[in-house]
Specification:
By secondary structure, this protein is mainly alpha-helical. It has one domain (about 25-130). The protein has helices at about 1-10, 15-40, 60-85, 95-105, 110-115, 120-130. α2 packs parallel to α4 and α3 (about 60-85) runs antiparallel to α4 (about 95-105). The chain starts with a helix and ends in a 9-residue tail after the last helix.
């Protein structure tokens, strides 16, 4: 209990504003990243018939290097999303986890992504965003 009292006494206006600023900045970055990804992905990305081919036509060394970097970034985003989901930590954890999942190349990720995307509010918001940028709505199975 003493640590809570010390924490409360150590709060200053500058620290509170810094925390609010970090929260707002991470919120905006998360929304921007998810918005870009949701507009750029093919409309059948969440369909079971989607065949993924990352960087087709590239030399194999470049392609595999990019796949490795993409997966490492995806893992880091998932870890960051889990940290952001903890109480008291500012940020959008679920959105960051979704972005990390989209970047990963692991078996079984499609059902996790679909579970998040199939929520009516999420799907309608994404399709509205895609419509704003003249993209067709997402096709779900």
């Amino acid at each position: 209990m003493d640590w809570l009292t010390e924490l409360w006494n150590s709060l200053t206006l500058g620290r509170v504003l810094l925390g609010v600023g970090v929260f707002v900045a991470s919120l905006l970055v998360s929304f921007l990243a998810i918005g870009i990804v949701m507009v750029k992905i093919p409309e059948n990305y969440f369909s079971s018939h989607y065949q993924q081919d990352f960087m087709p036509g590239s030399p194999w060394i470049v392609r595999w290097g990019a796949v490795i970097v993409k997966n490492v970034v995806g893992i880091l985003l998932i870890i960051l999303g889990i940290l952001l989901s903890l109480p008291g930590v500012p940020g959008q954890g679920i959105l960051t986890i979704l972005l990390g999942l989209i970047m990963l190349d692991i078996p079984g990720k499609r059902p996790l992504e679909a579970k998040i995307i199939k929520r009516p509010n999420v799907l309608s918001a994404i399709n509205n965003l895609r419509e704003r940028y003249d993209k067709p709505p997402l096709v779900m199975d």
